[in-house]
Amino acid sequence: MAAVDLSTHPGHLARRLQQAHYLLWNTMVSEEITSPQFAVLNALVAEPGMDQRTVGERVGLDRSTVAEVVSRLGRRDLIDKVRDPEDGRRSLLRPTEDGVRTHRKLTVRTARMNQVFLAPLSAAEQTVFLDLIQRVSDAAEGLRNPAEPIASQR
Amino acid sequence: MAAVDLSTHPGHLARRLQQAHYLLWNTMVSEEITSPQFAVLNALVAEPGMDQRTVGERVGLDRSTVAEVVSRLGRRDLIDKVRDPEDGRRSLLRPTEDGVRTHRKLTVRTARMNQVFLAPLSAAEQTVFLDLIQRVSDAAEGLRNPAEPIASQR
DNA sequence: CCTAATTACTCAGGGCACTGAGTATTTCAG
DNA sequence: CTGAAATACTCAGTGCCCTGAGTAATTAGG
């Protein structure tokens, strides 16, 4: 009767997009390491020694989720976790050698998967697509953090 | 070192987009009914009496997830669930009066939320955005179901 | 008919994502 | 220097999402 067409609802489409990606990741990249786990690993390869909070900020995960992902990566010995001697609240994270190796391997596969994922779009459309998603996400995240002052470079 | 820029990874962006939507939904639409729950309710308002499998197909949820969502909607007395007398395997689902009322209320709020969510884009960009997400999702879902024959209209 | 395949659903298990409450540590105000 | 505020993390609870295995009912083959 008064039902709505969900294909005009960005939230619904976002969920479907994410699910589609999840499946493709599973078949083309890894069945063990998930996309969020790769994101955390990637952040730590870029900048070893970050604490959990900072990692979460970088990859867009909240405190609890980071803790879980970190614990799984630790269980697989892909990252190390040590208490910061200078600030006993923090845990400092860094990839192990195995972690770096795994990251390298998955990076290649991820690139291939992205190509397949975006294949239905032309090169120009792909650029637009990434830009639009990013702008919407950034704006929506901005709604959460009220009027944060200008980010300093450190 | 060899780290990757995740802002060019559609999967990562898809996850962030969905999270952003989740937060906005929570503040602007409902704290009790989630977006997937609304999707199921919406499908049942459009076509009461579907079984769980069909609902899942319509809204893009797998068997297990539909079962969970349905059980939550049932707990809130928004839908009824009865065994199909003609086929004892099926559960037939239909919204209760309260379910229809709730659906109507949330429809209004959802429309408002979508406006806010898409506000950073121009009207033309919004159209492109929805189209691109849909095409990518459809294509990726197509990779899963191998060579399905042309869908019949019933 | 009656067995075998199919179909709808359930259940257990792993992982992501959020909130609210609690703990430990550090920092800051007085 | 000490008590209060802030910070990093943990834990419990809820919900979404998938897979693989199991159960009950229906359909199809011989």
Gist?
The structure is a homodimer of 154-residue chains. In chain A, 62% of the residues lie in helices and 8% in strands.
Which residue ranges of chain A are poorly predicted, with pLDDT under 50 across at least 5 consecutive positions?
146-154
The N- to C-terminal Cα distance of chain A equals: 55 Å
Number of strands of chain A: 3
**SSE string of chain A, helices as H and strands as E:** HHEHHEEHH
In quaternary terms, these chains amount to: homodimer
Global structural class of chain A: mainly alpha
Radius of gyration of chain A: 18 Å
| Strand composition percent of chain A | 5-15%
Question: How much is the average pLDDT of chain A?
Answer: 91
Structure in words:
2 copies of one chain form a homodimer. Chain A is mainly alpha-helical and 154 residues long. The first copy, chain A, has helices at residues 10-28, 35-46, 52-59, 63-75, 97-118, 123-144; strands spanning 50-51, 79-83, 91-95. The first copy, chain A, has a 3-stranded antiparallel β-sheet with strand order 1-3-2. In chain A, helix 2 (35-46) packs across helix 3, helix 2 (35-46) packs across helix 5 (97-118) and helix 3 (52-59) crosses helix 4. The longest helix of chain A is centred in the last third of the chain and has 22 residues, at 97-118. At the A-B interface, helix 1, helix 2, helix 5 and helix 6 of A face helix 1, helix 2, helix 5 and helix 6 of B. Chain A binds a DNA duplex (30 and 30 nucleotides) through helix 1 and helix 4.
